[in-house]
Write a structure and sequence with these properties.
six-stranded mixed sheet; 415 residues; Nucleotidyltransferase, domain 5; 12 helices; five-stranded mixed sheet; single chain
Length: 415
Amino acid sequence: MSKKEHIVVGLDIGTTKICAVVAEVLDGQSINVIGVGSSPSRGLRKGVVVNIESTVESIKKAVEEAELMAAVQINSVYTGIAGSHISSESTHGVIALKKREVLNGDVHRVIETARCGAIIPSDRRVLHVLPREFIVDDQEGIREPMGMAGTRLEVDVHIVTGAVTAAQNLSRCVTRAGLDVAEIVLQPLASSAAVLSSEEKDLGVVMIDLGGGTSDIAIYIDGSIRHTAVIPIGGNHLTTDLTVGLCTSHADAEKIKVQHGVSFTDQVSDDENIEVPSVGGRPPRLVSQSHIADILQPRVEEMFDLVRREIRRAGYDGMLVAGGVITGGTSQLPGMAEMAERTLDLPVRTGGPTGIGGLRDVVSNPTCATAVGLILHAVNHEQSPQGIGVGSGGAGDGWWSAMLSRVKPFVMNFF
């Protein structure tokens, strides 16, 4: 296969499916999707790798399909990470400016100061250090401090960490599939880049990525991220409920959920019956669609109730003027946005990837939000003068660039 310059690949390694999206970046700005590949995910549970061999095979299938469509050779990818092991905290950093304007190095230095102020256990890995706001001489609410004059620079940051072993196993799977990991990105951060508008982020919004094993949350206010969390309930729990409630196989329960499932009983009538396959050679049975809704509705309510509790626990209840945006595969269940509105008492819409060209119709589905978001995150990070968002110990170019920028002055002085 031929190689093309300015190729960026997003690899979403999810609990139920693995999706690879290939994009060509033109003029460092325009993003055209040129290839998509997907395969069922066999080796993850609740967002965490539990079987490396199965995960590697699933990655290879998705990447090969994307390579064939795009007619390129994929060498490195941006991949997402999620799971209940993800946690976050806020911290503060401050440095002296010596009565001069803020330079790029000052921004890096104050962020690093804030990061060093956080107590990170040895079994945790920093994934992102995300500035909420900068403060120059007590002037708050600054997003881009470079060029401003002052004697003191402060920053409030949101630090996201994950289990070292989870990140290592994820990287190992990608590496064994013959690929390099450019960066590991928090999945809700990537999904937010694909489905949220700048106006929503400014007004205050909660993004809920409803995946197979988990539901990821990201809260934005005043244009910056304020809180991230992972809810340990996803689409697989709905399928499991149907498996038990209908006494059928997991595969048949998944088909019934996709083809006939709804989020609440108000959307169906008792007159419509669905044929449900039995197990053990027993004959199939007829079950009303309202009975299927009766099984699914309590779990959907529980899912959004946990989201509501997380919003309140984080202290952002009543501050989300733009409401909520749901995305991910499970968001496609009919009535999901309406149920979210009922439970969260917020206006809610279903969001798909935006801000891209090329095969837009192929990736406009919410199931591709994370993969497309990984590409948008990569492109936006390359354009960012602050170099924000690279976690410590990462394998990507961003980490090496930051390291080399620190080593270079010492080398120059030595010689």
